[in-house]
Design goal:
Blueprint (H helix, E strand, L loop, with lengths): L4 H13 L18 H14 L4
Length: about 55
Amino acid sequence: MVVPARFSEEAARMLEARGARVRLRLFPSLAHGVDAAVLDEVQRFLADTLPAD
């Protein structure tokens, strides 16, 4: 089962409304798959989120 994108979008809006910093990136053509674009996004997210040391 694939979670509909609208649920992710709604969750992002609700979190932002409560002050959370949210990054939502949807990959509609992948369903449950992972490709290089997803891995690149994860790498960017971790680099931006985790401390450098």
